[in-house]
Design brief:
Structural class: mainly alpha
CATH architecture: Orthogonal Bundle
Helix content: over 70%
Oligomer: single chain
Keywords: Membrane, Mitochondrion, NAD, Translocase, Transmembrane, Transmembrane helix
CATH class: Mainly Alpha
GO molecular function, one term: NADH dehydrogenase (ubiquinone) activity
Catalytic activity: a ubiquinone + NADH + 5 H(+)(in) = a ubiquinol + NAD(+) + 4 H(+)(out)
Number of strands: 0
Number of helices: 3
Pfam family, one: Oxidored_q2
Number of domains: 1
Distance between the termini: 47 Å
Shape: elongated
Main location: membrane
Largest sheet: none
């Protein structure tokens, strides 16, 4: 069981590291964010399986994850249509 905790911690931290290192491209940020969410889902699934097969909350988590992914992709498509690329340097609406 300890090896699962080590692997899940490594997955989560490597996803966060890629999220912070690839901050120039929105697509790479979205992919690393989905990887972090996938590692959190795996950790939650393993934890809930030890508690007695209560998987209802994991389905709610997956639903919110899919909604988050769709919103991120819609922002990416909107950004590419308006600016032509997914660089954050060309996206100056926030400044």
């Amino acid at each position: 069981m300890m090896i699962f905790k080590f692997i899940l911690t490594f997955m989560f931290l490597s996803g966060l590291m890629m999220f912070s290192l690839k901050r120039k491209h929105l697509l790479l940020m979205l992919l690393s964010l989905e990887y972090v969410v996938l590692s959190l889902y795996l950790a939650m699934f393993l934890y809930l399986s030890m508690l007695g097969n209560e998987y209802f909350f994991s389905m709610i988590f997956l639903t919110f994850t899919v909604c988050e992914g769709v919103l991120g992709l819609s922002i990416l498509v909107s950004l590419i249509r308006s600016h032509g690329n997914d660089y954050f340097q060309s996206f100056s609406v926030l400044w």
